[in-house]
């Protein structure tokens, strides 16, 4: 039922049940190299102060260097966060939306004890002009609190498709309260349609020629829907698969690239053998979707299928962080041997 399939051997027995931290550092401490933590655009405290004041900045695109430049000049009349001391320690932060993770955030230095900070700093993004024109610029001002949560002071959002690029002058813009539409929709990355199955060792009977001597996990990646459209032509996507804690070449598998499609159909099946039933508690299937480009691939979103306990073979790991939906999907597979379990799971930042 799938147009491509791969089968690889996956040996868990090299991981001891109670390893020392030192002996496991090479195997497990760096296993999350495939993905990193991405904070929300809106990671902070909104309730303490009301947005007020203005920000002065200019936008430009350097054609020669293929660079988007945000010249942040200054702010005026910002809200006071610490009323007892009458102070704010503001800085400016920018993201390109809708995919804040792809290009990352840029931020200015922190100016202490002022509601009228002067920055005169340029925040730069290496990005093609045609890609930039389907983005929005989110520029926000924050109070820096090194001992607590940073406080939101206001923002402005600009649709770069309608921006007048002949306007390179510094202009003043009023800071607005947080955008609820952006909060709710900024991290929508699409959904993955897949099925998984666990075949326990020897469960198919002696008469079955394909009866596995060790257990197998089957992963059928069917399709992905509603991917972020990074270019006017769409997106060239593929799916990577690892079974953590193993990030070796033996564990790594990927689908073919589907070009110019935000709803790619992969229909790709992967089989991992060497799975004993007890390994299902400590392993995690990580499926990530990437946009393929010549120089570098860009992360679009992913899922992690496991029990989400934060532990793997007694070691604390950041990748054992499955959501409730992902945990329920994995548990259903564990409780229904030899049966395909179907799911439609939202992609997320990892």
Automatic annotation (TrEMBL):
Localization terms from the record: Cell membrane
Molecular function per GO: neurexin family protein binding
Domain annotation C2: ranges: 51-173, 200-320
PROSITE patterns: C2
GO biological process: exocytosis
SUPFAM superfamilies: C2 domain (Calcium/lipid-binding domain, CaLB) (SSF49562)
A Gene Ontology term for the protein's cellular component: exocytic vesicle
Keywords annotated in UniProt: Cell membrane, Exocytosis, Membrane, Repeat
Protein name: Synaptotagmin-like protein 2
Organism from which the protein derives: Antrostomus carolinensis
């Amino acid at each position: 039922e799938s147009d491509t399939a791969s089968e690889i051997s996956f040996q868990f027995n090299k991981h001891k049940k109670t390893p020392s931290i030192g002996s496991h550092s090479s195997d497990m401490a760096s296993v999350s190299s495939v993905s990193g933590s991405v904070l929300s655009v809106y990671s902070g405290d909104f309730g303490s102060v009301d947005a007020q004041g203005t920000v002065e900045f200019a936008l430009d695109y350097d054609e020669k260097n293929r660079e988007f430049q945000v010249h942040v000049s200054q702010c005026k009349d910002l809200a006071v966060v610490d009323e007892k001391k009458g102070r704010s320690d503001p800085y400016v932060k920018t993201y390109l939306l809708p995919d804040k993770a792809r290009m990352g955030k840029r931020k200015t230095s922190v100016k202490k004890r002022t509601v009228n900070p002067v920055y005169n700093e340029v925040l730069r993004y290496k990005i093609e002009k045609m890609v930039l024109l389907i983005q929005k610029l989110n520029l926000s001002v924050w109070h820096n609190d090194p001992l607590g949560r940073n406080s939101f002071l206001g923002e402005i959002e600009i649709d770069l498709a309608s921006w007048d690029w002949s306007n390179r002058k510094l202009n003043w813009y009023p800071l607005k309260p947080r955008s609820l539409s952006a909060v709710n929709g900024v991290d929508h990355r699409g959904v993955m349609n897949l099925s998984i199955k666990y075949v326990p060792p020897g469960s198919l009977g002696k008469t079955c020629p394909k009866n596995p001597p060790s257990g197998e996990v089957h992963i059928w990646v069917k399709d992905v829907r509603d991917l972020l459209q990074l270019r006017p032509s769409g997106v060239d996507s593929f799916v990577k698969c690892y079974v953590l804690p193993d990030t070796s070449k033996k564990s790594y598998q990927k689908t073919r690239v589907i070009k110019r499609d935000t709803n790619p159909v992969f229909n790709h099946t992967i089989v991992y053998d060497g799975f004993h039933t007890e390994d299902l508690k400590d392993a995690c299937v990580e499926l990530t979707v990437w946009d393929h480009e010549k120089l570098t691939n860009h992360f679009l979103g992913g899922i992690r299928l496991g029990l989400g306990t934060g532990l793997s073979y007694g070691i604390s790991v950041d990748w054992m962080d499955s959501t409730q939906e992902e945990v329920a999907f994995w548990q259903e597979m564990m409780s229904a041997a030899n049966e395909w379990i179907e799911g439609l799971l939202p992609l997320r930042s990892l």
